[in-house]
Write a structure and sequence with these properties.
Number of helices: 4
Helix content: 40-55%
Number of strands: 0
Shape: globular
Radius of gyration: 16 Å
Distance between the termini: 23 Å
Order of helices and strands: HHHH
Amino acid sequence: MIVNKQLSVSNRKKGDIVHELRKLGFRPFPKVSKAKAAGETEEVIPDPDEDEAEEEGSDADFDYLLGMQIWSLTKEKVRMGRSGLRGAIC
């Protein structure tokens, strides 16, 4: 979506981008569920430095997307990713 200029992230607040990602149907990936899926058994201790979670989730739920390296969006990388997907689907 960024490559096709359907979603812009430049010079926008993280909360605004997260709201748009939710509206577009992107899947949130909360850090708590990731830790539990990895076998973590300890209770979660909230981080006072993190923003409070909204009812529908936290802004951090999309860190897996917003933390992507910019070079992963170059034309070459996108082409490699698309060809890899085509190979996996076939």
